[in-house]
Amino acid sequence: MDSLIAIAAAILYSLAIATIIPGLVNQVGIRTKTVLVSAVLALTFHAVLLSDLIFSGAGQNLSILNVASLISFIISLFMSVAMVKTRIWFLLPVVYSFAAINLTAATFVPTAFITHLEHNPKLLIHISLALFSYSTLSIGALYAIQLAWLDHKLKNKKALTINPNLPPLMMVERQLFKIILIGTGLLTATLVTGFVFVQDMFAQGKAHKGVLSFMAWVIYTVLLWGHYQKGWRGKKVTWFAVAGATLLTLAYFGSRFVREIILN
Fold it and tell me: The dihedral of CA 7, 12, 18, 24: what is its sign?
């Protein structure tokens, strides 16, 4: 049953992507209702699938593939909501592609990492904050890449060829720093709850998570300071945002990928 749900969700994500791409390539109108309906149905199937994969009688299966699928769901949900108000067509095919790939991998390459969060609500709070901070800052990295691409177009005097389905440069920049500001706040809360609630946060095999997460926090803090105090823009912003997201990816998935996928 889970395999059928995964296939249905992947097809619906693919339908949304197939509806968006012609508009980006040919600079024609995109059928927003078709994309939205496909995305809503895909997200519904995705949510049902996650419920089956994560929750079981033995506890919660927070394997690396299940967590990756959960993060893809959160990002896809946020971006689908944003689609109603802003022109984020450039990013949606990337987001939906990762969602389809991750949910398919979680379904057909099952792995297990059983936890019992019902007995540890403090850890549940910490993990929830970590998931939302990573998802938010990953969206920020996508916005930064889009910002760099739009900036490159304008600097090379290709403004007239920019697709009308793409958002204005300044609007993307404003949204980017709002996202990074929110994500950094969530990351701060994640680090604080980690120090307070997770007793073995710097135990052997776990220390890298705290260190890399703190390094990412420093990068995002410097980026926000540089933008609001020094007026940083352009490539520097993109490099900082992508570097921060890369460090968080290594922190959250690095060692677990080796243990669960390569060594399993």
Answer: negative
